[in-house]
Specification:
0% of the residues lie in helices and 51% in strands. It is an all-beta fold and 123 residues long. The protein is globular, with a radius of gyration of 13 Å. Strands 2, 4, 5, 6, 9, 10 and 11 form a seven-stranded mixed sheet that branches. A four-stranded antiparallel sheet has the order 1-3-8-7, with no helix packed on it. The protein has strands at residues 3-7, 10-13, 18-25, 32-39, 46-51, 58-60, 68-73, 78-83, 92-100, 112-113, 117-122. A hairpin with a 6-residue loop joins β4 and β5 (46-51).
């Protein structure tokens, strides 16, 4: 079984930055594409970014492209989400997820999920 543990969330002022991390264990990390999703009150879980299993390809939803950077450290079984120029609209619980093979923007495609970490951006 895969276990995912997010960390790095917190309270930040608009315009600030946070770096989220997700520690992966239980399977071979390099076989999994990794995604970051958010879920705000009243909304379904929403795709933010993904990185291929090798780390060679990244994917972003339009609203975060240029502000957020996803990366992975395969030596340490960790995926990161660097979030810059944060706005109150970014406030949500952020989840990392793992999918065997190719990434998806559909949260229903991911088998393994972390517990989430709260990101709150004040105006």
């Amino acid at each position: 079984q895969v276990q995912l543990v997010e960390s790095g969330g917190g309270l930040v002022q608009a315009g600030g930055s946070l770096r989220l991390a997700c520690a992966f264990s239980g399977r071979t990390f390099t076989r999994y594409a990794m995604g970051w999703f958010r879920q705000a009150p009243g909304n379904e879980r929403e795709f933010r970014a993904a990185v291929s299993a090798s780390g060679s390809s990244t994917y972003y939803t339009n609203s975060v492209r240029g502000r957020f950077t996803i990366s992975r450290d395969n030596a340490n079984n960790t995926v990161y989400l660097e979030m810059n120029s944060l706005t109150p609209e970014d406030t949500a619980v952020y989840y990392c997820a793992a999918i065997a093979g190719y990434y998806s923007e559909n949260y229903r495609s991911y088998r393994y999920w972390g517990q989430g970490t709260q990101v709150t951006v004040s105006s």
